[in-house]
Specification:
105 residues; alpha+beta; two-stranded parallel sheet; 5 helices
């Protein structure tokens, strides 16, 4: 997997999926892979800011157990489980799901 990431980060998703150039530029999948193989640089149990853990039960890229683990370990996290959702957010729900990030505290 690491060799495929080094060669072409978009290919780690699947050999059968071809990303557009625009998606390759913003995907950031390399960062996701690095999060799997090295420490994050902080302990999630010490997060003290408002946090929302959002995951989809049909996600084939990140197992739902990871979302469950975050929900259990991030203090006071708001947990949103999208029973029909996958890895990418539903474009019709982006404002609802992520708008809180720009609200004044």
């Amino acid at each position: 997997m690491l060799e495929r990431v080094a060669d072409d980060p978009s290919k780690v998703i699947s050999d059968n999926v071809e990303l557009s150039e625009a998606d390759r530029a913003v995907w950031g999948y390399v960062d996701d892979i690095f999060c799997l193989i090295q420490p994050w640089g902080f302990d999630v149990t010490e997060i003290g800011v408002p946090t929302r853990v959002l995951y989809g039960l049909t996600d084939v890229l990140v197992p739902r157990q990871h979302g469950e683990w975050l929900a259990h370990n991030v203090p006071n996290a708001e947990v949103v489980i999208d029973e029909q959702g996958g890895h990418m957010p539903d474009p019709n729900l982006v404002t609802e799901r992520f708008g809180w990030l720009v609200q004044p505290v």
